[in-house]
Each structure stands twice: as C-alpha cells, then as structure tokens.
Amino acid sequence: MNLQELIGKRVAELRKEKGLSQQKFSDDAGLERSHLTNIENGNNNISISTLEKIITNLGITPSDFFNTEEFSNK
Q1: Could you tell me how far CA 30 lies from the centroid of its own chain?
Q2: Fold category of 3-69 in CATH
C-alpha cells in the first residue's frame, strides 16, 4: 500500500470512528463529497491544506493522525 492509500484509509477510519457520513464530514470540512471519496479510496493526491482541513475537522493533531503502526512501517 502506498502513502496516498494509507492516508485515505486513515481518513476513512477516523471519520467512521466519529460516526460521520462522508456527506456530513465533507460539508463540515468544506470539501466536495466526491473529492473526499476519492481521497479515502486512495485515488486522489491530497494537498497539505486539504489534509489540514480534514485533521482539524476530526479534532485531532497531525501527530495523532500519523501515529499508527502503518505509518511507522512506511
């Protein structure tokens, strides 16, 4: 799995943990739902500013986002 796919998987995992639909989360983060879908599926490169919006709307820190075994092994 490449980094783009790992980031997408992590976004989906954290969003689901918060109990948020893609539509609700994308509305709150100011993203198009289709763009979020593509990010979560690992189909879109993600900009730093988009990642910042996602992390902020998840209510976590960048450290929390990347603090997983999958990123540690990358």
Answers
A1: 13
A2: 434 Repressor (Amino-terminal Domain) (1.10.260)
